[in-house]
TrEMBL record:
InterPro entries: Aminoglycoside_PTrfase, Kinase-like_dom_sf, Ser/Thr_kinase_AS. Residues 129-365 form the Aminoglycoside phosphotransferase domain. The lineage of its organism: Bacteria, Pseudomonadati, Bacteroidota, Cytophagia, Cytophagales. It comes from Spirosoma endbachense. Gene3D superfamilies: 3.90.1200.10. The keyword Transferase applies. This is Phosphotransferase. Keywords: Transferase.
Amino acid sequence: MLQNRMLHSSGSVPDHQDAYLPNHRANDRSHRAIWTAGWCRIHGWSARHDADGWLLWHIQPVYVLIRLAATGYSEATQMATDASRCFLTPTQAMLLTGFTIAHYLLDKGYLSSESILDGRFTAHLASSRNTNYLINRDANKGSLFVKQVQAWDQEKIETLRTEATCYWLAENEAEYAQLRKFLPPYLAFDSQNHILITEAVQGAISLNDFYLQQRSFPLQLATRQAELLGSFHKTIARSVQDAPSFRLFRKQEPVVFLWSSSGFPAYSGHQSQAERQMVQLITKNEDYMTRLSAVREKWEATSLIHGDIKPANFLINQDAPSTGHYDLRLIDWETADIGDPCWDVAAIFQSYLFYWIYHEPLQGQSAQNSYASYGFSLETMQPSMRQFWQTYIRLMDWTAEEAEANLSKIVGYCALKLIHTCYETIQQASTMPLHSARLLQLSLNMLRSPDEAIWSVLGIPNAVRL
C-alpha cells in the first residue's frame, strides 16, 4: 500500500501585570493571625519575621493544626485577635511545600480553616517541570490546581508568566473569549512567588490515557480539537504584536528549528550512542538536511500558538464516550508564543502518526507482552484526521490557495516534529529502537513526497483539502 511505502526507503508577565491579571483576594488578616497565634501560644514566641525567614513558615502549620484542634474555634478567634497586633507580612518569595501550601491558600482566601480542621483539605504533589499540587478543599468550592516554579530559574519564571498571560488573554481580550471554554477556569497569578492557580478539571483524564483506554478516535473529538485551535489561531497584525498584551512573547522559532539548523548538537554535554546514531542518520543524508532547511524557511509568525500540542496536554472528561459530550481542555501553555499556527496543526497530525508507528507490533512481537502493541491502524485514525482538517480550515476561513499551501507546509512541520519525537523516544536507550528509526524514515519520506503523504498517510484526498 502507498501508506506503507512512506515507512520505507525511497515570557514573562508584564511589569504592569496588575493592570492585566486580577489581584488576589484581599489578605484575610484573621486567617493569617490564627496561624501565627497558634505558634505564639504554644511556644510563647513573638510573631516576627527573623533571620531564618521562611524556615518558621515551613514547620509552623504542623503545630498550628494541633493547637487549633485542641482549643476549638472560640479560643482560636481570640488567638487571632492577640496575634494580629504583632504579625508582620514576610517580603521574601517562598517556595511552596507540603507544609506551607495550606498556609498560603488560607492567606489568599482559597481555603477555609474549617476544611483544614475537619480533614477535607488534602494536597497531592504531581510535579514535572514545575511543582504542581492538586488541592481538595470544601466540597462546594471544587478542587484547585496550583503550579509554581521549582527554583528561581529565570527561564522557568518567564515561561510560567507566559502561561499566565495566555489565561489573561482568554479572560480579558474579546478576540480570545472563545478560548476560555477550552481552559481550566483561571483564578490568580502571584507574580512575586511565581504561582499560578486554576480550578482543577473534575473527572478528566489526559487525551493520551483516553486513546489508550478507548483505542478509538471519535470524530466529535477531532471536531473539538479543531474548534479549540481555531479559538486562538487569530492573525495578529505586527503593530498589535508589540502591544503590552503580547510583549511577553519572544517570537522565537521552535527549538527543533534551531537544533536542526545547527547540525543537531548535543542537548546536554554529551550524546548517548542512540543519539549519535540518530544524528548521523540525518546529517549524513544531504537530501534530508536540504529539505529540512527548506521547511524552516516557511515559518511565519502571525498568531498566538500553544507550541507544545500533544495528547498529554489535553484533558478530556472520562465519561465522554457514554455521554457523547466531549469537554476538551488544553493545559501547559508555558511554551506559547507568537508563531505559525501551522505548527500546532502539524502537532495534531504528528500525534496520530506517533500512535500508528510506536504502538504497532514489530515482527515476532507478542501483543500480550508488549506495551507498544496496541496496534492503532492508520485506517482507524484517518477519518479523524480528515474531520479535524475540514473543521479547522472552515474556521480559519482560508482561500483554496491558502489551504493548499498551508497543508503542504504542515507536512514539512510534521516531518520536523517526528525528528523531535524520535529524539524523545531514545532517551535512556543504548541503541536506537526500531520504532524510533521508523519515525525518522517516515519523516524523510514525507519531506520527499509531501503530496503522497497528504492523501496516503494523513488520508486527506483532494476533494476535502479545501
